[in-house]
Amino acid sequence: xxxxxxxxxxxxxxxxxxxxxxxxxxxxxxxxxxxxxxxxxxxxxxxxxxxxxxxxxxxxxxxxxxxxxxxxxxxxxxxxxxxxxxxxxxxxxxxxxxxxxxxxxxxxxxxxxxxxxxxxxxxxxxxxxxxxxxxxxxxxxxxxxxxxxxxxxxxxx
Length: 157
Hints:
Elements: E1 9-12, E2 18-22, H1 44-54, H2 71-81, E3 89-90, H3 91-97, H4 105-113, E4 126-127, H5 140-150
Parallel strand pairs: 3-4
Antiparallel strand pairs: 1-2
């Protein structure tokens, strides 16, 4: 689907739960496979909610998501779901939320970078401890645009 941050590729499992949302050129992102079946049905609600989000009318997605990863990654991804619209957090704060040790911050960053559900699972809200806009699988320009859309103001810690 088209969006203000460029084309979005959504995938879903047989049960209709979204399994990924990626963008062209995304590090570790998905690309259309020949064996895939195009069916707009599972994506109707996602399209409506994404359109409302980009219009500034929706602050929380209510969609069935099914991202599969290690238990550690799934804990990190669940912590991302708790970062409120319009705010930012740091990798260290995410590590603390899941009870990970200080040395695990790098692993937390790796799990965030592997988030298969960009925008829907708001990894764009995670910034560096110094307030810098570090890394984003979809590119820093998209991260900046998403944070601006939400009115988030990253501040140095």
